[in-house]
User: What shape does this take?
Amino acid sequence: MEDPELEAIRNRRMQELMAQHGGGNQQQNAEQQSAQENAKIEAEERRQMMLNQILSSESRERLARIALVKPEKAKGVEDIVIRSAQMGQITEKVSEERLISLIEQINTQTTKQTKVTIQRRRSVLDDDY
Assistant: This one.
């Protein structure tokens, strides 16, 4: 009387636990890793295709140059551009000027304020007690 779908989920979870604790089969482990790698590669390809549709060639070049220096910042800008396109906020290709303004907006939002305080220690030789 048990649900076959629930049983399949339990079996899958049990196999995952066994694989994590070394009780799994090495062949299955290698297959799972290759499947995960393939999924990551496919997701990255889809991401690049979306960016090619959204960004103009100049803005893609600028984003590639940013990625050379600060890959995490470029990834964040890509995420924002893709999210905006999915929400319908971007209807035409993003020009280089628009990308620059978007990057400037992100910079102003994420700028860290550093405050330096200097605490002077009194020396033994100071005469103003």
